[in-house]
Structures are given as structure tokens and as C-alpha cells.
Model the fold of this input.
Amino acid sequence: MEINQCGYHVKCDFNGCNNIAKYAFSTKGLIKRDLCFCEECLKEMYELLAKMQTPRALKSPFKLNKKLRRKND
Ligand SMILES: [Zn+2]
Done:
């Protein structure tokens, strides 16, 4: 499995997302075709994965937002 820059001008595969896909997730045949997604969805996926990896971060999203806001201040 690997993530490459998406070479085609296609829309992001995520439901409700109308961005143009920037990356393609290739499984070399494990799924029918590459999953194409935009940078925003990549970040979202990354955050979700990070939460799964570190159970302690599984607090309410509100707290997470507060943390992010503080960082921006
Ligand atoms: Zn997207």
C-alpha cells in the first residue's frame, strides 16, 4: 500500500467533499481502484488514525478544538 500524488483531475472520493483529489491511495489491486482524496481529507484521516493509535487522545472533539485554538492564539 502506498499514497501517491493523484495524477488525474478527479474529485475527492469522500462523501460530501467536492475538492479536487490531490492524493491517491494505492493498494495494488486490494480495492478495485485507487482511492483519491484531497489534502483536507488526508489530514482528517491522519487525525483519526492518530486518535486510534493513542487512546488517551480520544477525548471529546471540543477539547481538541480548544487545544488547537490555544495554539493559534
Ligand atoms: Zn476531500
